[in-house]
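INTERNAL AUDIT FORM
Audit reference: QA-55
Scope: verify that the stored structure record matches its stored sequence.
Auditor: D.O.
Record contents follow.
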Amino acid sequence: MTRVAHEVPDEVADDVARRPGGGCATALLSLVTLAFAVWAALPVVELDVERYTVALTALAQYAVVVGAVLVLLGMLLRRWLNVLIALVATVALAYTVAPRALPDGIAAEGEPLRVLSVNTYFGRADATTIVDAVRSRRVDVLSLQELTPEMVAKLEGAGLFAELPNRVLHPGPQADGTGIVSRYPLRELALVPPTTLAQPSALVDVPVGRDVEFVAVHPLYPMGEGTAHIWARDLASLPEPSLTGRPRVMAGDFNATLDHTRLKDLIGRGYVDAAGALGEGLTPTWPSGWTAPPVTIDHVLTSGGVRPEDYEVFDVPGSDHRAVLTTLRVAG
């Protein structure tokens, strides 16, 4: 019997031989590509259940850049399977992230309501800067997070309550306190059950148009050991849009990006993220410096005929967050 030799075609053998790095490069690139694919999948599979996956999910937008680098590296090294995996994961993630930089084109109509959110960083933010911003930008409602009694005193001394005389304040030590300050009369509500950090709510008596329910948001920071489930619970405590269609605004430090499961679920129930609607969804709000990769965790959500018209973030000395200012339109 004649034995038939099965030989690898010369051009295939030559291609394998010419691949840079050999098996070691293939193994390393495959390992990195697999890790990248898992990272890119986190916002989809919704595994942000402990502090490390919460952090990786927060950084998901940066995975698009990493994926593009892996695609180019795979092409240079001629590892086509790695190229395919990285390309599919990158395109899928970019499809999710890119719309945040594109305005939705829906016109805002109705009476203006200017909302400012400031995390005062344990009461260390510069009170004069906050009051100057309220005055120069003609803010109507101010959401304050990490509001200490000392910070309340500093804001009063800087003249805040002369500009915005109405208030629902729940100050506390360190990050515990939160407050709402308004140009218009407030009636305290209980839209949020007791949570780890204060999340007060109030009805804003807008002089023209419909009254607006307002929630100052601040769930627990999810990076400490054992805090991720508390953070998820605090976010889940935020109310769904009103069944009556009453206008509602929720503004503050959500400690969550648009990739985190609980915030996505909340928006999916009928809220509009002001930054995302105006093409500013990738504008970072924390940290104000470069102590960590910047992410967008401060938000203004609206429902019940409230639409964003413009959006701005700016630094406040002494705070680790950037302030978020948006002009909303409340439909009549």
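Auditor finding: record pair retrieved intact. The chain has a mean pLDDT of 93.
Action required: none
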